[in-house]
Design a protein that fits this description.
This protein is 51% helix and 7% strand. It has 31 helices and twelve strands.
């Protein structure tokens, strides 16, 4: 077990000047302990029960002293070798066993969470070289402690999980492993979108804080995790982590987390109150969506209060809502012209609560009218005949039209519509490839993104890269590519200067593929996408959206879930007006609905909720109510889309119920007052 390597000889902690010199020589991802030797020792010693008990007791006695050293004595800055303690303890493969969960591991996690930022970053860099199995073992250790505490402590609104030192400590330790998982994955640090040349215009009006003589908060821009900054990496830089991001989510914790309180701690940023929103990797999409909902609502109420204050101070009659009055037949003209005026005059108005009114209709917008408005706008905008987007029949996806005749303002307005949908908690039927959401989060498209954006081109370029013969002689292609415009006319583009004279060879084919992807996904649509992103950021620039969500979660947020589980909807539906789940008509209703085809089920969802997509978390998260609407009649069922309420008469037979329901969902259009 002895090892005469330099790493082993320098493993004694803080031993005079030589120890200090050894530390200075170490790379950012190295420590002065021989990790392989530690693993060999553990392997031999842990087979002895008495020695394991000694380990357990040692950790119980050691942890409070470590916590004291780190909290009050600033020990790491004086002796960086102190980090070896944590490296050695985390190599113990029995840490997640029941004996450790009660006292030893909670105390150790609390001590480890006191490590300064530089030490946490060093641990993350070190662990990023570990295998996926070793990373998974550490994740399971901390997750087991969190789950154990959540199950046995019975947290609620008076006994907050945020106040439990063991859960908070384990979550902070899990963050170090999370960034090790990102660093050790497949990274793309280079292809970043350029920031907008001109900043998003701020409101010309004063904020509420400034009106009251206070400094404006959050002018520093969107929040960034300090450990992320220290490591010089973002989650979005990771194409494929060592282990899937989903393994970091702790479902039992999500169930007991009081999100309204957690959001408050997140915004206030006090040292004595921990917010799990600062560790978004542990939260599922539903919980994060709730945090975003609170943020959006509070911003809306803030804008409303400012408007009222202005009315009192300046005597002006200002509108506390973002009001859009549109004609159903001219929805694009009316909506986009109004939004363009608001974006130019006072972009802050976009952060007010949306209130839509269809001309000639009586519907009051409590959410349902907005849902229909967004759906109609999206249907119009993405109509291929308009020519702003192209549609791929094979992938069923839309892409920006490089040769569109529309000006940049039109794309900006589409970005605003997308941002407004997130801001007002509406789901859109939008079909973009994932690269669009990656680009919105600041990453450029690369060859790998062509796999879902343009699979045919991706396969062709992949075959070019893998071709074993002579590319130049057999394929005879150059650095000039051909595209077709709206009218089918060929357009030539040089990937390099005088590209038509540069043949693609085995040596330069990688560059050809990279340049081709760069042109298709970035350069050819640069003008259109920048305008689109600018509109999106006008609404979301102050939101924690980028901080909380990964690109695939942004897609889920905008488009909802494509998986429609009507059994889950049946489980969560509530009843009113005399109906209950055992009523004859209710049983017949669910039998009828389950017998519908996919398209009819989507029409039913559209009729009842205003959208044919499931919310984040699936249909089980949709609070639908079926209310009695009188005895047997020839009237059709009706709905309050704002509140997801279906008004169902007590039809005399199952056949009549089916016929009336199908007619209602097939021909439903427009709003009235019931």
């Amino acid at each position: 077990m002895e090892d005469d390597s330099p790493a082993a000889s320098s493993s004694r902690i803080g031993e005079g000047p030589s120890g200090e010199n050894d530390v200075q020589k170490l790379a950012p991802d190295e420590v002065s302990v021989d990790i392989e030797a530690v693993r060999r020792i553990y392997e031999r010693l842990l087979s002895n029960d008495k020695i394991e008990a000694a380990f357990l007791n040692a950790l119980v006695y050691l942890s409070p002293n470590i916590e004291c050293d780190l909290t009050y004595h600033n020990v790491y800055s004086r002796d960086p070798n102190y980090l070896n303690l944590f490296v050695i303890v985390m190599e113990n493969s029995n840490l997640h066993s029941p004996e450790y969960l009660e006292i030893a591991l909670p105390q150790f996690c609390k001590a480890m969470s006191k490590l300064p930022l530089a030490a946490q970053a060093k641990l993350a860099r070190l662990w990023s070289h570990y295998s996926a199995e070793q990373i998974r073992r550490m994740v399971e250790t901390f997750q087991q402690l969190i789950t154990y505490k959540v199950i046995f402590m019975e947290f609620n609104s008076r006994n907050l999980v945020n106040d439990d030192d063991a859960v908070v400590g384990a979550t902070k330790c899990l963050k170090i492993v999370y960034y090790a998982n990102v660093l050790g994955g497949d990274l793309d640090m280079e292809h970043n979108e350029e920031e907008d040349e001109e900043p998003i215009p701020e409101s010309s009006e004063l904020t509420l804080q400034e009106l009251l003589g206070e400094e404006r908060r959050n002018k520093k821009g969107p929040r960034v995790d300090p450990l992320e900054t220290e490591l010089g990496i973002r989650t979005n830089d990771c194409r494929r982590p060592l282990i899937p991001f989903e393994e970091f989510v702790n479902e039992p914790l999500n169930e007991v987390l009081e999100m309204d309180k957690d959001y408050t701690f997140f915004k206030v940023e006090t040292e004595n109150k921990f917010s799990f929103m600062t560790c978004p990797f542990i939260l599922n999409a539903v919980t994060k969506n709730l945090g975003l909902y609170y943020d959006n609502r509070i911003r809306m109420y803030s804008e409303r209060r400012i408007t009222v204050l202005y009315s009192l101070v300046q005597g002006q009659q200002l509108n506390p809502y973002l009001r859009l009055k549109v004609r159903r037949d001219h929805i694009i003209d009316d909506a986009l012209v109004r939004l363009e005026m608001i974006a130019m005059e006072n972009p802050a108005d976009l952060k007010k609560q949306l209130y839509v009114e269809f001309e000639g209709e009586q519907g009051v917008d409590e959410g349902g009218v907005s849902k229909e408005f967004f759906q109609l706008v999206v249907e119009e905008i993405f109509n291929p005949d308009i020519g702003m987007f192209t549609y791929d029949e094979r992938t069923k996806l839309f892409w920006f039209n490089p040769s569109s005749f529309e000006n940049e303002g039109q794309y900006t307005l589409i970005g605003i519509v997308l941002g407004l949908a997130i801001y007002n908690n509406c789901i859109l039927d939008v079909h973009f490839p994932m690269v669009v959401y990656r680009k919105l989060m600041g990453k450029k498209g690369t060859f790998r993104d062509l796999a879902d954006a343009n699979p045919v081109l991706y396969q062709s370029l992949k075959e070019l890269l893998e071709y074993e013969g002579s590319v130049e002689e057999d394929m005879m292609i150059t650095f000039q590519i051909s595209q077709t415009d709206l009218f089918g006319n060929p357009l030539m583009y040089d990937l390099r200067e005088n590209g038509d004279k540069i043949p693609v060879t085995n040596e330069n084919r990688k560059d050809f593929v990279a340049q081709y992807a760069e042109y298709m996904l970035n350069k050819s649509v640069e003008k259109q996408f920048k305008a689109f992103r600018r509109g999106f950021h006008m609404v979301t620039n102050e939101s924690p959206l980028k901080y909380l969500f990964r690109p695939e979660e942004i897609e889920l947020l905008i488009c909802g879930s494509r998986n429609l589980d009507f059994l889950a909807l049946e489980e969560t539906t509530e009843y009113d007006g005399g109906y209950n789940r055992h009523s004859r008509i209710i049983k017949e209703f669910w039998e009828t609905l389950h017998s519908f085809g996919e398209e009819q089920k989507r029409l039913f969802l559209q009729f009842t909720t205003g959208t044919d997509r499931a919310p984040v978390g699936g249909l089980g998260k949709l609070k639908m109510i079926i209310a009695k609407n009188g005895p047997d009649t020839d009237r059709l069922p009706t709905s309050h889309t704002c509140f997801n309420v279906l008004l169902l008469p007590e039809y005399s037979s199952k056949e009549k119920l089916r016929e009336r329901l199908l007619k209602a969902i097939t021909y439903a259009k427009g709003f009235g007052m019931l």
